[in-house]
Here is the input.
Amino acid sequence: MVNREEGIILAIETSCDETSVAIVRGGKHIASNVISSQIDVHERFGGVVPEIASRKHVEVITLMIEQAVAESGYSLGDVSAVAVTQGPGLVGALLVGIVAAKSLAMALDVPLIGTHHIAGHIYANQLVHELEYPCLALVVSGGHTELVLLEDEGSFRMIGRTRDDAVGEAYDKVARALKFPYPGGPHIDRLASEAEQTIELPRAWLEADSYDFSFSGLKSAVLAVINQKSMKGEELDKAALARGFQESVIDVLVEKALRAVKEHGAKQLLLCGGVAANRGLRTALSERCEKEEVPLLVPPHRLCTDNAAMIGAAAYLKWRKGEFTPLDMKAEPNFSLEGWAESGTAR
Here is the structure.
C-alpha cells in the first residue's frame, strides 16, 4: 500500500476535445498521462462541435480511467484524491468529466478537487521545472490569451487578457480563410517558417500602458489581403501572408510579456497553453529572453495541449491546503482563475 499522504491524485480533463486521465504524485511526478484526441472527428466541421465532443467523452472516459491506472503502477486503492477540470470549457464536455470524477471519489471515499483549466496549463511547467516566485505566465491557447502574475504559489493575478479573439482562435480563423484544415495553427506555423517573403500586417498595441491583447483587427487585415488579391485576379502568396500574420502576433506577445516581467520583477517567464507548441513563438521568446537574461520555462509539447497531468499538478495546490470541493460541485464554463485560487472547502 502507498501512503495517501504522498498526494497521489487521479486527474480528469474533459474541457474541450481531448479526453485525458492521469495519475500524478506530489504535484510533480507523472505516473501516467493518457489522452484520447478528437481532432479527426471535428476536422470535417472546421472546428469543435460541442455536442459531438461531449458524446465522444462519454464513449471513452471509462477506458481512459482504466488505462491510466493500469499504466501508472498504482491501484485505485492508492489514490489520495480525484481531481477534475471544473472550468472554463464547454459545459457539456466538462460535465462528463465531473460526473465521472464525483462517482470515483464517492466510490473510493476520497476528496474531490475541482480544478481550474488555466491553473493547470500554468502548473504544467512544474511537472518539468522548479518554479521561482514571483513569476509571470503567458497563457496562449485556443480560448485564452492572458498574462498572469504569480506572486506566490497558487496566487494568480490577471494583469492582461485578450479583448476579443484568443491567439489560437485567430490562428484557426486565418487558417480557415486560407483553406487549411482544422486545427489551423500548425499549418500557419509551418508555412510561416518556409516563407521567403513577408506581407506586413498591423500590430495592435492598444493603450501605452496596457497588457491587454486584441487580434480581431489582425484577422480582418488578413481577410482584406485575401479579398484584394482575389478581386485583382492575383495569386496569393500564402506563405508570405502566414509569416506576416505570425510575426504580428508574436511581436505583440513577446513585447508585452517581457515588459510585464520587468515591471513586476518576475524571476521567470512561463509559456503555457496549446499555442506554446508554436515553433515561431517558442523561438522568438527564447531569443528575446536570452537577450534580456530572463529565465524562460516552456513545457514539452505533450504537456502544452490539454492533458490531465497538468490538472493533477494544479490540484495538488489544493490538496496540500486541505481545500476540497463538495460533491454538489457544478461545471463552471466561465470559471474565474482568481476565484478558484481564493475558494476552498476544508475537509
